[in-house]
Design brief:
It contains seven helices and 20 strands. By secondary structure, it is α+β, with helices and mostly antiparallel strands.
């Protein structure tokens, strides 16, 4: 009891004369958590921008090195067969009333029609990692049989020319034969050529083959913008399953799955088209861009973790100070910081496992001292495993990342609503008498 000017008042009435301290304390704690969350999110944004900058700078410098060592994208075009014809030409000119006649020789090239093409291509993907990126390098074994017809009525010296698919490449075991006889070749600017005589009205079969290596894509283009193709067949085998044909290219007419990849066939009797055959090499998970995406998404993981920790500690009457949340945010940040500098040294999967173990160990070992081992290992450990590790691992599921995170978020909302449905929040945050 306490005595006032108008009589005697209960001592509890004195509390109503002051602001509710517990409510002020809860408000301040939430404000402190928001401040910690915002500051940590800014650190993650800076971390993500740093990873993106490192990735871009390393790509610009390392890709040229990869091209110089391994090769560039390749696009093969069919060979040509031609002979030269020299004709006498007469030209008349009239200048200042004077008529002059000039006789000269003109040489023109006559192309032999390509009647038949039988091509085999074997693509062997061997990706290489440089810094924060994987490069889609491959080996290719090319072989082609081309049948040309000498439509003239007499024997001609035919020059067979094979355009090279890329200047920045090496070509090993180059074979160049006509009707089974080896043909000496002469390197030109972007091709190799050889000359032999073909009888009039006869056909000649040019057989070429080589082994090379390239980057990103391999293609076969029929010639100009629009080309006519007769009796064409190309059989491609791959050592990878994830095949992809870029837009504005021809799809195979037949596909057959093999133990290690695919056997693809393009076959046409008489086609007129401006499209080409092209295969895009499958891309591995890129360590640098993936680490950057996970860093940009990290504030969402931390939000769910803080939200669940606040709900659980409120229900269990566990007192976690904002400084405790500060150290927990630091443990979360350590996951992405370590991942950013570990992915360019070891496998992305191994780096992810190590960073996950380190971050979970930091949280559990710290909360063990604050709240006890059971809460640290069960409630906090499982919550971190779900919202840091599993949410981050969703970025490995290309094409399903958003769906996986959305399902996890909806399940979280359902669980929290079931846990707190019978809670009277007005009573939970009501001021308690001193």
């Amino acid at each position: 009891m306490a005595r006032g000017q108008g009589g005697i008042f209960p001592s509890s009435a004195l509390l109503d004369l002051h602001p509710p301290r517990r409510r002020r304390s809860v408000t301040k704690r939430i404000a402190a958590l928001i401040l910690i969350f915002v500051c940590t999110s800014l650190a993650w944004l800076i971390r993500g921008a740093t990873i993106a900058s490192r990735t871009e700078s390393s790509d610009s410098s390392l890709k040229e090195a990869v091209v110089s060592i391994w090769g560039s994208p390749q696009t093969q075009t069919p060979p040509t067969a031609a002979y030269e014809v020299t004709e006498n030409k007469t030209e008349e000119r009239t200048e200042f009333g004077t008529k002059t006649v000039r006789t000269f020789k003109q040489t023109s090239s006559i192309l032999l029609p390509l009647e038949r093409s039988r091509i085999t291509v074997a693509l062997d993907l061997e990706p290489r990692q440089k810094g924060l990126l994987w490069y889609r390098t491959y080996k290719v074994a090319f072989a082609g049989d081309y049948t040309f017809s000498n439509t003239s009525d007499k024997e001609q010296p035919i020059t067979f020319t094979l355009p090279l698919p890329s200047v920045k490449a090496i070509y090993d075991d180059l074979m160049f034969t006509v009707d089974g006889a080896p043909l000496p070749v002469v390197p030109r600017e972007n091709s190799v050529a050889g000359t032999t005589r073909v009888a009039g009205g006869k056909t000649a079969v040019l057989k070429v083959s080589y082994r090379s290596q390239g980057l990103d894509t391999w293609g076969y283009k029929f010639g100009g913008e629009v080309a006519q193709v007769r009796d064409f067949q190309l059989v491609m085998t791959t050592n990878f399953k994830a095949i992809n044909f870029p837009s504005n290219t021809l799809s195979p007419s037949e596909k057959r799955e093999t133990p290690g990849g695919w056997a693809l066939t393009w076959a046409y009797r008489n086609m007129l088209s401006g499209f080409a055959v092209e295969m895009e090499m499958p891309e591995k998970i890129q360590p640098g861009p993936l680490a950057g995406e996970i860093s940009y998404f990290a504030p969402v993981s931390l939000f769910f973790f803080f939200f669940l920790m606040f709900i659980i500690t409120t229900l269990k009457n566990i007192d976690l100070h904002p400084m405790n949340y500060f150290f927990l945010a630091g443990a979360f940040f350590s996951f992405h910081l370590l991942l950013a500098y570990l992915v360019d040294h070891i496998s992305i999967y191994a780096a992810f496992a190590i960073c996950s173990a380190v971050s979970v160990f930091l949280v559990v070992s710290y909360l063990r001292l604050v709240t006890g081992l059971r809460f640290a290992a069960v409630e906090a450990g499982i919550t971190q495993l779900i919202y840091l590790v599993l949410f981050s691992y969703a970025f490995f599921l290309k094409g399903f990342t958003g769906l996986a995170i959305t399902i996890g978020s909806i399940l979280t909302l359902f669980v929290v609503m079931q846990m707190t449905g019978r809670i009277r929040w007005a009573e939970k945050f009501a001021p308690k008498p001193r």
